Amino acid sequence: MSDVSLDDRGRLTLPKEVRERYGERYHIVQLHDGIKLVPVADDPLGALRDEFADVDKSADKLREDAREAALDEAGR
Predict the structure, then answer these.
(1) Where in the numbering of this chain does the SpoVT-AbrB domain appear (predicted)?
(2) Do strands 34-39 and 26-31 pair parallel, antiparallel, or not at all (unpaired)?
(3) Low-confidence residues of the chain, pLDDT below 50?
(4) Domains and CATH numbers, the chain
């Protein structure tokens, strides 16, 4: 972990090792006790396709399965 500071214009410079590992673009998420930088892929849709390439079910089927599981867990 590294400590970094904002410059006089409010910019934050990430260490080279961080940029090489996670990339150049980040989404800032505000939490109740701080912030989190979430890397954004150069091609976000491509990254999603890669992440879910092994999923054989449609979005509708996944949604229905999740609904059924939630109802079961709630004691339907």
Answers:
(1) 4-45
(2) antiparallel
(3) none
(4) 1-40 (2.10.260), 42-76 (no CATH)
**Model pLDDT, residue 1:** 72
Cα 25 from chain centre = 12
* Measured distance between the N- and C-terminal CA atoms of the chain, rounded to whole angstroms: 46
Instruction: Please count the other Cβ atoms lying within 10 Å of the Cβ belonging to residue 35.
Output: 8
Torsion sign, CA atoms 20, 22, 27, 32: negative
Q: Distance (Å, rounded) from C-alpha 36 to C-alpha 17? A: 18
